[in-house]
Design brief:
With 73 residues, the chain is an all-alpha fold. The protein has three helices and no strands. It has helices at residues 2-11, 14-24, 28-64. The two termini are 23 Å apart.
């Protein structure tokens, strides 16, 4: 699920977003550098989301450890 979310929320559309941001910042190498720095903010936000989710993971795992999936029957 994490890999799917990574591509849907960032990996699929960020290259298309980098071009217009780069052009708005003046284009060329400096515009592209600025665009990539702006897009990296999304990665930092994702880090904090994963960090917050990891705090509840052990208790969530304890809640479902005895659950049997349909495919395991």
């Amino acid at each position: 699920m994490a890999v799917f979310s990574m591509y849907v929320l960032g990996g699929a559309w960020s290259p298309w977003l980098a071009g217009p941001i780069s052009d708005a910042l003046g284009g060329g190498a400096d515009g592209l550098k600025g665009a990539l720095l702006i897009i990296c903010i999304g990665g930092v936000l994702a880090f904090f989301c994963f960090l917050r989710g990891s705090r509840s993971y052990p208790s969530d795992l304890d809640k479902v450890k005895d659950t049997i999936l349909e495919s395991e029957k």
